[in-house]
């Protein structure tokens, strides 16, 4: 489609900054000077962003990277006036094309939002209104800014919506525009949100973790789309991300934030090659996609290790279609074995069947056919007390450390629960054992009396691991157990898991979509796609010479710093 | 969809049958007997033989199970029997009271909705924190006001002291004002509470930020994004308040001396007029079940996610 001007003439687009013969020092699209942001709780103001400065030039991609709590999202939201009602700019300036918008009223900001700044939000699944059609939500941007633009007729908006849907790569725009968000996949929803952001061709797009919730291959396509649009319209992008790999691959300049301050700023290639601050160095070292991690030492081939988990031809079908007349194979003939004391990773994107496979291994879902054996026991054949005892031997650590801990229990009660349920130790010895477990996962004894909400994400995941260990299991199933954590914390948890495995001889079944993490922790890998295992083998072989096309696609989609390598 | 509809209607019928059976058993288990109360009065001077004859006439001597089936068949064919107290057909007594109660309940429900929506939207839209605090306290106050007390208070203040509204001898509309307020206030409370909470909850969802980022004004966001999403949980509660509406009308009509189903209920209870009570229970259950069935059918129209919930569940 030719890149004809989308916005009809007469729409104020601000200065024409993207002109080819712009002056040597262009007016930045966005310049933040000494910005401080505070949140008010009760009558106390807490400053979370302390005097940060950054600039985004026309057509440039600037990445703001940092861990959770670094203030990166707050900064981005302040730039578009989207701070929550208890937050306010307590100092500094936000210049949009040279005009300070930090003191603007809502009315003034409304004229800028959507027109000059677009937002691509973090979570595509909750960022679209569930009761409005896709088309209506894209057309809304034009409707809102219709005042003064007589040309935005109903028919015009409809045509524009279809054009935009086609532009962001959504097939059958006609049909899709009449659909509701729940009828679209995560990747498609993010495309719709991008269409909303670019509808009026703003000069700046603020992308707040736009791909964190997406699978790697989908992430790659969405990032490619943003790149194309930037090239086509000269839109500048302020890219907020926790993923250094993505930042390294996609940005020209990088701002590293930590605890509300700018830790380091500069050209992306420079920062990757010669980071000046210690913090940046640590971040880079912990980022699994950027450092060339050693593969796990191969298991001693001479040692004869029995298989702890044996899955044979697992199949799970669900009724599908109208009235359940057809069947859908969520898991289709999956086999794998895991030798005792090793880690087997199941890799796949959403809908690949990896979770169903794991649930069958745990005995939570009955296979339609096939069998699974853990420590010589098939959960299908067990009933009652035997099944309960089986569950003790195979414990689960979930992805979300926020949802998997009971918010009303203290950490001590959480860790003691398996001890109580399985009567593993004397009631009098429970407290000692719980303290021992908390110590084992390298948490201070003081956390025992606290509740989950008082802990950080990494600490909660350690508590979840301690709880799993309390049952004295032989197998740990780690379902995306480090996916929700910051890289530094992720590296620490992976280190802890490795240590625990060596010491206790545990067997891990590690489910992940993140190949970089899998590479660091697993001995063997199965790659799943559409319910089937497309390729499996030792981690090193699989990563160095992938045989299946899908594996190659997955590996290629992992963001990495081509520039810095 | 048709299967869903058939299933829901089937459930509704089942509920009605259960309500009928349960009320039949309970009413029969009550000590005393309307026939005894009415005819054993010494002033009538009836002999025990005559009373036994009357019992035969009303079918009270038959085994319970037979009475149960006879009553059930009668209800199914639209024959609700005769009032023991007045001797007129039950259907006539209900038909007399129904219009007044329908008027009262409908008006009260509408007023309750208006009150709840006003409280919730103003508290959510206002920029004044103190107003919000005050408004959010209103539902808790409303829910704790007893209906009979509010009725008496309103009569005292508005009719007797201020003389604004007549309690006797006004037009139909005038006579409706105070009862409607009395009935609406406690019903508006749960609606307002749920609506306030869902408005607050919807405001925190990311799609609201996206709408603001599009340049939408506060009104735009409230009406086009937040309102419809916040309506869904409130609708469920609205369906459930029908029960309170029916219960509240008994007290309201008694306090204001209106001749409606509520008043009839009160009289029938006093006289232990079992056929009338039985019919009222079924009527109330029917209204309740029908309204909630309609609410359920409305959901898929308001929330497209509930439409055609068939597919892969993996």
Descriptive notes:
With 565 residues, chain A is of the alpha/beta class. Helices cover 34% and strands 24% of the residues of chain A. Chain A has helices spanning 72-79, 106-112, 134-144, 154-167, 173-177, 186-198, 216-233, 244-250, 268-273, 278-286, 354-361, 384-393, 411-421, 430-440, 457-470, 487-504, 515-521, 539-544, 549-557, and strands spanning 30-41, 44-56, 61-65, 87-96, 99-100, 117-120, 204-208, 236-241, 253-258, 261-267, 307-320, 326-339, 343-347, 369-374, 394-397, 475-479, 507-512, 524-529, 532-538. In chain A, the strands form four sheets. A six-stranded mixed beta sheet of chain A has the order 6-7-8-3-9-10, with helices on both faces. A six-stranded mixed beta sheet of chain A has the order 15-16-17-13-18-19, sandwiched between helices. Mean pLDDT of chain A is 85; it is low at 1-20. Chain B has 314 residues and is an all-alpha fold. Chain B has a domain at 97-271: MetI-like (MetI-like fold, Orthogonal Bundle). Helices cover 77% and strands 0% of the residues of chain B. Chain B is built from twelve helices and no strands. In chain B, helix 7 crosses helix 10 and helix 9 packs across helix 10 (218-256). The radius of gyration of chain B is 24 Å and the shape is flat. The model of chain B is unreliable at 309-314 (pLDDT under 50). Classes of the chains: A alpha/beta (565), B mainly alpha (314). Chain A binds chain B through residues 77, 80, 82, 106-107, 110-115, 117-119, 121-123, 126-132, 140-141, 144-145, 180, 182, 193, 196-197, 318, 320-324, 328, 330, 351, 353, 356, and chain B through 205-207, 209-218, 220, 224-225, 228-229, 302-305, 310-314.
């Amino acid at each position: 489609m030719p890149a004809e001007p989308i916005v009809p003439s007469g729409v104020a687009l601000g200065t024409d900054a993207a002109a080819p013969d712009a002056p040597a020092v262009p007016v930045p699209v966005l310049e933040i000077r000494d910005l401080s942001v505070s949140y008010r709780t009760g009558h106390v103001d807490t400053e979370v962003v302390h005097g940060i400065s950054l600039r985004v030039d026309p057509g440039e991609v600037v990445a703001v990277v940092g861990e959770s709590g670094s203030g990166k999202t707050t900064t981005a939201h302040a730039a578009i006036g989207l701070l929550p009602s208890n937050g306010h700019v307590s100092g500094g300036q936000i210049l949009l094309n040279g005009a300070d918008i930090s003191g603007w009223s809502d009315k003034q900001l409304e004229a800028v939002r959507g027109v000059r700044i677009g937002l691509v939000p973090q979570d595509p699944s909750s960022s679209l209104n569930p009761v409005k059609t896709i088309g209506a939500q894209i057309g809304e941007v034009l409707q809102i800014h219709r005042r003064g633009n007589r040309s935005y007729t109903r028919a015009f908006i409809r045509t524009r919506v279809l054009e935009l849907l086609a532009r962001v790569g959504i097939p059958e725009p006609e049909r899709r525009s009449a659909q509701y968000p729940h009828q679209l996949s995560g990747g498609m929803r993010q495309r719709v949100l991008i269409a909303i952001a670019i509808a009026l061709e703003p000069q700046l797009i603020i992308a707040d973790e736009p791909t964190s919730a997406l699978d790697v291959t989908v992430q790659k396509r969405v990032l490619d789309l943003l790149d194309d649009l930037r090239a086509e319209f000269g839109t500048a992008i302020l890219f907020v991300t926790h993923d250094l790999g993505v930042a390294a691959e996609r940005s020209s300049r990088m701002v590293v934030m930590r605890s509300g301050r700018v830790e380091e700023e500069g050209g992306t290639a420079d920062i990757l090659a010669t980071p000046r601050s210690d913090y940046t160095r640590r971040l880079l070292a912990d980022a699994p996609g950027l450092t060339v991690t050693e593969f796990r030492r191969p298991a001693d081939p001479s040692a004869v290790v029995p298989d702890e988990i044996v899955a044979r031809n697992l199949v799970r079908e669900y009724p599908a279609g109208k009235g359940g007349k057809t069947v859908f194979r969520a898991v289709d003939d999956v086999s794998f074995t895991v030798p005792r004391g090793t880690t087997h990773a199941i890799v796949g994107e959403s809908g690949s069947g990896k979770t169903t496979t794991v649930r069958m291994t745990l005995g939570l879902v009955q296979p339609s056919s096939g069998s699974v054996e853990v420590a010589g026991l098939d959960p299908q054949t067990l009933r009652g007390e035997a099944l309960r005892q089986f569950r003790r031997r195979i414990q689960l650590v979930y992805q979300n450390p926020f949802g998997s801990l009971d918010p009303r229990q203290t950490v001590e009660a959480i860790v003691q629960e398996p001890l109580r349920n399985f009567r593993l130790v004397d009631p009098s010895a429970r407290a000692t054992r719980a303290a021992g477990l908390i110590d084992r996962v390298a948490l201070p004894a003081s956390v025992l009396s606290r509740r989950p909400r008082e802990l950080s994400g990494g600490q909660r995941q350690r508590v979840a691991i301690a709880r799993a260990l309390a049952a004295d299991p032989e197998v740990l199933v780690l379902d995306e157990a480090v996916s929700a954590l910051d890289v530094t914390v992720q590296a620490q948890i992976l280190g802890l898991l490795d240590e625990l495995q060596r010491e206790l001889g545990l067997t891990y079944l590690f489910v992940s979509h993140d190949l970089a993490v899998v590479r660091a922790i697993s001995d063997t890998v199965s790659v799943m796609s559409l319910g089937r295992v497309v390729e499996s083998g030792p981690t090193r072989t699989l990563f160095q010479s992938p045989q299946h096309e899908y594996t190659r696609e997955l590996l290629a989609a992992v963001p990495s710093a081509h520039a810095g390598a | 969809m048709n299967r869903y509809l058939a299933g829901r209607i089937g459930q509704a019928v089942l509920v009605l049958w259960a309500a009928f059976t349960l009320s039949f058993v309970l009413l029969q288990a009550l000590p005393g007997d309307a026939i005894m109360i009415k005819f054993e009065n010494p002033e009538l001077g009836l002999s025990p033989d005559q009373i036994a004859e009357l019992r035969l006439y009303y079918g009270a001597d038959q085994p319970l199970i037979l009475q149960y089936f006879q009553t059930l068949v009668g209800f199914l064919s639209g024959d609700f029997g005769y009032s023991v107290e007045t001797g007129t057909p039950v259907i006539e007594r209900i038909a007399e009271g129904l219009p007044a109660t329908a008027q009262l309940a409908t008006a009260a429900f509408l007023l309750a909705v208006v009150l709840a929506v006003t409280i919730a939207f103003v508290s959510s839209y206002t920029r004044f924190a103190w107003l919000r605090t005050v408004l959010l306290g209103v539902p808790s106050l409303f829910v704790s006001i007893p209906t009979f007390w509010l009725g008496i208070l309103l009569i005292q203040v508005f009719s007797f002291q201020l003389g604004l509204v007549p309690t006797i001898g006004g037009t139909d509309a005038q006579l409706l004002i105070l009862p409607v307020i009395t009935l609406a206030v406690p019903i508006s409370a749960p609606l307002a509470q749920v609506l306030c909470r869902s408005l607050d909850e919807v405001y925190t969802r990311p799609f609201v930020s996206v709408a603001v980022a599009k340049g939408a004004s506060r009104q735009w966001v409230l009406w086009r994004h937040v309102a419809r999403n916040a309506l869904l949980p409130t609708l469920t509660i609205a369906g459930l308040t029908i029960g309170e509406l029916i219960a509240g009308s008994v007290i309201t009509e008694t306090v204001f001396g209106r001749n409606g189903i509520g008043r009839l209920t009160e009289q029938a209870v006093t006289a232990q007029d079992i056929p009338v009570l039985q019919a009222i229970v079924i009527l109330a259950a029917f209204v309740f079940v029908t309204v909630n069935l309609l609410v359920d059918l409305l959901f898929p129209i308001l929330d497209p996610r509930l439409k055609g919930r068939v597919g892969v569940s993996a």
